[in-house]
TrEMBL record:
Pfam families: Amidohydro_2. Residues 1-28 form the signal peptide. Residues 100-333 form the Amidohydrolase-related domain. It comes from the Bacteria. Keywords: Signal. This is Amidohydrolase family protein. Gene3D superfamilies: Metal-dependent hydrolases. The lineage of its organism: Bacteria, Pseudomonadati, Pseudomonadota, Alphaproteobacteria, Sphingomonadales.
């Protein structure tokens, strides 16, 4: 979830989108087949957010009250129904219990992470196929590989969400890169697809992104990997476009780990970073929001629209019905291209992957 990263600027920017784009009540036509990025949460996470707010006053400034509410699988299905969407991907926020700013004893952190992941998996199992669950793991914690191994054997666990901003990743740290690469290799062996939020507070340079692609992603083999927020953390800036270009170059050269690589474009098109006071405007103000979106779509076309999937990050912005209606207006694609995007589903939702794994 976008609000759970270490980069306060990015977190604030993403959540302010709910204010910038008011609900219209209109539906996107056609509707996506799947929302690839949704969140529910148990009372454990709800209480944890309250603790985080006390520890870091102001960090949740501007956030909708929905963030502080328990949300069940039935709530997610209700929102899917409102939007005319068949399937949703639940990304557990269990990784948040490893957030270093509010430390827990290792055994308590592991207990809470397991419980939050169980909540998401059980809600998905009760949905009659409408929801699939990815468990949340901080790959730098002592329980990471145990948690991966455990869920790889449990019915209803379809993959792993890594929020590497929240987990404190610095791709300039060789030890962290080595640990993350080992986790990708273990996930590939366990056949547990990954949804990865890469960008956080650490430098997001071309060299660091190349390190991720060449050293970490390469360990995924043919495992489905979904990069969240279109390669960045929402909105579009020069670093996001550069990241997208580097992913495109890797896909074109068929680099290891890219066979089943897709990017979800949650919170990319609707967010104009230049209008947010909390985001540095150096470089952003040189283009209008429409120009940034046009540049992003040009990169999408160059890579191929089949590599992009639709996602809302509900409830961080707006409910899926309103979110996708706004996205259809904001994203400068043709009607045919929008239809293609709506039909796209990540490899881990396709029958051939499910049957083969």
């Amino acid at each position: 979830m976008i609000w759970a990263r270490q980069a306060r600027t990015a977190r604030r920017a993403m959540l302010t989108a709910a204010i910038l784009f008011s609900s219209t009540g209109a539906l996107a036509e056609p509707a996506p087949r799947a929302d690839h990025h949704m969140h529910i949460q148990s009372a454990l996470i709800t209480d944890w957010l309250q603790d985080m707010q006390k520890a870091m006053p102001g960090v949740f400034e501007g956030i909708s009250g929905d963030i502080f509410k328990v949300r069940m699988g039935g709530d997610a299905v209700h929102e899917l129904d409102r939007a005319g969407i068949h399937q949703g991907v639940l990304l557990s926020a269990g990784y948040m219990f490893g957030f270093s700013a509010v430390p827990l004893a290792p055994e308590e952190m592991a207990r809470r992470m397991r419980a939050e992941n169980r909540f998401n998996v059980d809600q998905a199992l009760a949905s009659n196929g409408r929801l699939v669950a990815f468990v949340g793991i901080n790959p730098f914690l002592g329980n990471a590989l145990d948690e991966l191994e455990y869920w790889s054997r449990q019915p209803g666990a379809s993959g792993v969400k890594l929020h590497l901003g929240n987990s404190g990743l610095d791709l300039g740290n060789p030890d962290q890169v080595k640990t993350l690469a080992a986790f990708f290799a273990a996930a590939s062996k366990a056949r547990m697809p990954l949804v990865v939020h890469l960008r956080g507070a650490a430098p997001f340079s071309n060299a660091n992104i190349a390190t991720f692609i060449d050293t970490v992603l390469s360990e995924a083999g043919d495992l489905p990997v979904q990069i969240a927020h279109g390669g960045g953390f929402g909105g579009i800036d020069a670093a996001t476009l550069e990241a997208l270009r580097l992913y495109g170059d890797a896909i074109e050269r068929k680099a290891p780990g890219t066979a089943n690589l897709v990017l979800d474009i949650s919170a990319v098109a609707q967010l104009d970073l230049s209008k947010l006071a909390s985001v540095p405007t150096e470089g952003i103000e040189t283009r209008t929001a429409d120009e940034w979106r046009a540049a992003y779509v040009a990169q999408m076309r160059k890579i191929g629209l089949d590599r992009f999937v639709l996602a809302s990050d509900w409830p961080a912005l707006t409910p899926p019905a309103e979110y996708f209606a706004a996205e259809r207006k904001a994203l400068p694609v043709t009607d045919a291209e929008w239809t293609t995007l709506c039909e796209n589903v990540a490899p881990y939702l396709r029958a051939e992957w499910i049957k083969g794994n």
